[in-house]
Every structure is written in C-alpha cells, then in structure tokens.
Amino acid sequence: MMIADQNLVKKMNKRRLLQEVIHHSPISRANLSKTTGLNKSTVSAQIQEMVDEKFIFEIGQGQSSGGRRPVMLMFNKQAGYAIGVDIGVDDMTVLLTDLDGSIVTERYFDLKQSSPDETIALLLTTNQQMIDTMPASPYGLIGIGICVPGLVNREEQIVLTPNTHWNGVELKKIVESTFNVPVTIENEANAGAYGENIYGAAKAYDDFIYISVSTGIGVGLVLGNELYRGVHGFSGEMGHMTIDFNGPKCNCGNRGCWELYASEKAFRQSLPGEWNDDEIASRLQKNDVELFRALENFGHYLGIGLVNIANTFDPEAVILRNPLIESNPFVLNALKNTLSSRMNVRFDTECAFLPSTLGKNAPALGACSMMIEQFINGITA
Ligand SMILES: [Zn+2]
C-alpha cells in the first residue's frame, strides 16, 4: 500500500473511532473494536493518540463480566467551546456551548433601531466577554458561527437582507480578524434546520423542512440528511413564493409573497388592535374569540404555502419555529385542516408536523453545531 493511502486509512479510522466515542460513550476499547471491526492494536494506537490530544479521556467504571473492570472511554466535550450568534431583524442571541452543544452562557439583546455598525460593536464586545469568562480548556474557543435573516452566498457574504440593512457588510472578515478563530456566516433558517437536526425536533429525520416564522418566513431544507443550499447558497427562500399573483408588492420585488400573509408580522397586522405579547397571552387565557379567529387564519395561511412545499418535497416532517405556534397546538391543527382540504394525498397524517423544540435558540445552536462539526472533522483531517 502506498504511504498516502495508509495515511488516508488512518484518518478514516480515527474519524470513525471518534464518532463512535462521541455517540456511544462511555465505551470500552474492546467494544470499539467490535462495533467498528477494527483490530485491537489499531484501536489502541488511535485511542492513545486522541487521549494524548485530550479529545478522549478514560474512566474506570465499566460493567465487569467477571474479570477486571474495563477502562471506559469518554468524549471530552469540554475540550473546547463554540459561540453561536443569531442576528435577527429585531433581536440578537449569543450562546456559548461546549462541544456537545450544552449551553454554558446565553445572552439576548433587543436590536430595535440598531444599525449594523452598532450591532457589530455589541457582537464583538459580547463575544470578548464570553471568551474572558469561558472555562479553561485545551482548545479554547474553536469557532464562531453567525446567522443572519437573509441571503448568504457560498463565499459566506451577506448579499440580501430584505428586512434589515446588512447587504455587503463584511461580517466574516471583521469577526475572523478580531478573534483569529474560524468563522462561518449562515442563513438563519439553514442554521435553525441544522440545530433541530442535531439537537432538537428533527433528530429522527433525514428529509424534513424547517420553517422559521417571524418578521418574514425562512425555510431550511434538509434532504437526504444534507442541508440543501442550492448552487449559490440561496435555496429555501420560500417566504417569497407567490400565493396571490395580483397581491400586494413585497420588499423582494415580487407580489403576493407567502410571508405577506403568513409571517408573524402579518398575523399581528391582522389583529383588531396593537396587542403586545402580554395582551395576547391574557386574551388566550380568556379564550378571546377574535384572537382565536386570527390564530386560525394564521394556521390557514401557513397551510396554503405548505401545500406547495408538500407537493414539491414530500418530506417526512415539517418543523415550525414560532413562539405562537409552539405554545398553541390550535395553529398547527388549523394548518393541517387546510392541507387535508387541499390535497388528495393524506399528507396531513403521513407527515409529522412538529413545533421546534429548541425555540428561539435553534439558529444559534445550529451555528454552534456547524462550528463543532468543522472542528471535529479537522481533528481527523
Ligand atoms: Zn417577497
């Protein structure tokens, strides 16, 4: 065998073993050998390397089958930390997680009336504070993942944010040069889909659609267990699919876009008054008829767009991210009724419709998990 091939095989074995330890720890060397089919000396040598590199550590608590207790191996999830940032239209979430995606620190900010320059300044200060208070670890900060509510091209440049003013801001360069760690810029819905797939409601699914409903509607497509980005990175802009070809003009240049009817902004505009979150919560308590009618319409308009999505992708699951949908099963029921009345295929019963389980942290957690995956792949590269 050529040296180059031997190196490749070694890296592949190392990656395989590390993945096994990450997903099945605590696990013994003997069991690793069984589950991977690699011989014991290969397992021993590779594991020793990763113990020396502090990615894996040993504990002495294995189940004994009579003889000596085997030493068990654990993934060192505190070997480093990741920062995930979700810059929304009106707010920002910044999370620090360990390599297992467990949140160590979380900060939330109101961005109403903030310019991109002010937001960047806040982002850099917050990141620095998180780095300063981060627990000591062998690899420190392994990366910063940032998501934005708009189009991000394959070069990770922000090219269009219809509801904010981030077009052309060189965010990746600014953050990379400040902290000297890998930085990824991602679309908010793609990051949310990724987060739900790794840690949340979509763990069990390889083909699902993630729909983030806020000021606009963002869609993340996971097809065949891969995030589908499109040639330029612009896939999933389904908030701008035409629902009414004579409808009102949208910021995107089109008319009658789905998000003009089914976004949370549209839902709030449909209410008889300017009800804030507290007002909505108290009216829900009192079973307010007007509010329930508005929520039913919200579900109905979401369902209209979902008919198009269901007919196009035939997914296993649809995950919806919005606080009102997460807390009112009523909206999901209205949505399913619309689907069943407009589709011959019983999609409403064949596909799982689930509220997000990560809630407002979904995109920032997804951004963290992207950095963690990049780091772990780098260990074995
Ligand atoms: Zn539009």
- Provide the domain count: 3
Largest sheet: 5 strands, mixed
Please identify the structural class as seen in this structure: alpha/beta
**Spatial shape:** globular
- Main β-sheet, spatial strand arrangement: 6-5-4-7-10
Textual characterization of the structure:
This protein is of the alpha/beta class and 381 residues long. It has three domains: 3-75, Winged helix-like DNA-binding domain superfamily/Winged helix DNA-binding domain (Arc Repressor Mutant, subunit A, Orthogonal Bundle); 81-192 and 362-379, Nucleotidyltransferase, domain 5 (2-Layer Sandwich); 201-357, Nucleotidyltransferase, domain 5, CATH 3.30.420. The chain is built from 14 helices and 15 strands. It has helices spanning 3-24, 29-36, 40-52, 116-133, 171-179, 188-199, 259-262, 264-270, 277-285, 289-313, 323-327, 329-342, 347-350, 362-379, and strands at residues 27-28, 56-59, 72-75, 81-87, 91-98, 103-110, 141-148, 151-152, 158-160, 183-187, 208-213, 217-223, 226-227, 317-321, 352-355. Strand 5 and strand 6 form a beta hairpin. The two termini are 20 Å apart. The site of zinc ion has 5 residues, from loops.
